[in-house]
Amino acid sequence: MRYFTLKTTLGITFLLSTLTSLHAQENCSGFCFPEGGAAMGGGTFEQFVPTRTVVDVPGEIPAGIKNLYVELNAEVDVDIQLFDTDADIPLVGWNIGALIDNGNVASVDYKGVTIEYSGYNGIVCGDHGHEYIKITGTTRNKLQMKFYGYKEGQATVTYSYEGNQSGNRAAGNGSFKQQIAHKSLVEVPGDIPAGMKNLYISLTSKVDVDIQLYDADTNEPLVGWKIGALIDSSRVKNKLYNGITIEYSGFNGNGINKGNEYIKISGVTRNSMRMKLYGYQEGFATVDYSWEAN
């Protein structure tokens, strides 16, 4: 289980940057997207799902929402469904004629975005009720999410997004824990968006866990051991990349514990980035991160 700011399970999430956004989050249920947009946002809510029933999730997903990530957690078997409400087209769902109807991870390009679904077998195969939808790009039409309950139960939904307005970004920070399996590569949910200034990410683990960092737009490896990365070093090293300086502690960590590493980004990011963790040993890692206002 992962824990971090806003009590969500998305990993790196960048907090709401305007009072309008915060006010909207506090006064609605389901998906809450501030009128007129916001630089970024996110939230969490609960939804009861009866047995063998389709439930509309409150709050449509409007056009203009960038890089939306939604994660469903339920102790019982609950499936995600997603619809284009403008065209009445099923996009995700089992046995409803959807574009994605898969037990495992699958994706499809649709109206300028890429929709990725964990599959109805769950994020970890067999863990039914733990699913996600990731929309890469900016939505051009309204979307509606629904749940189908194969068993009755309570579902917790967490989500994060980048908005349709750039705005000024306030300083912020967060922290979460991530379980890492032995010799397993784990993608940290929640991309680092463009426009982040002087980002610092610290990894702390009692076991040997390495940071990997990628350009999410091009999938180019920026930091990591033996993955053809821009920085592949056992000690502190920095490189210029697309207007920023990336500094990495090195995979030997702080010299005391190989699971204690950091990445420091000086400047303002011009593209989205994605972080992954590789476990040379099984255990938990704590990730702390902060950024400055711009």
Overview of the molecule:
- The chain has 294 residues and is mainly beta.
- The protein folds into two domains: 145 residues, Jelly Rolls; 121 residues, Jelly Rolls.
- The chain contains one helix and 20 strands.
- The strands form four sheets. A six-stranded antiparallel β-sheet has the order 1-10-3-8-7-6, with no helix packed on it. It has a six-stranded antiparallel β-sheet with strand order 11-20-13-18-17-16, with no helix packed on it. Strands 2-9-4-5 form a four-stranded antiparallel β-sheet, with no helix packed on it.
- The relative contact order is 0.19.
- The N terminus is likely disordered.
Q: Helix/strand/pairing class, anyone?
A: mainly beta
* Radius of gyration computed on alpha carbons: 19 Å
Strand tally is: 20
**How would the global form be characterised?**
globular
User: Would you identify the CATH architecture of the largest domain?
Assistant: Sandwich
CATH T-level fold name of the largest domain:
Jelly Rolls
Distance between the termini: 32 Å
Tell me the β content: over 45%
Main sheet attributes: strand count, strand direction, barrel closure:
6 strands, antiparallel
Number of helix segments? 1
Number of domains: 2
Uncertain stretches of 5 or more adjacent residues: 1-10, 14-26
**Strands side by side in the biggest sheet:** 1-10-3-8-7-6
Overall average residue pLDDT: 84
CATH class of the largest domain: Mainly Beta
Portion of residues in helices? under 10%
Q: What's the helix-strand series?
A: HEEEEEEEEEEEEEEEEEEEE
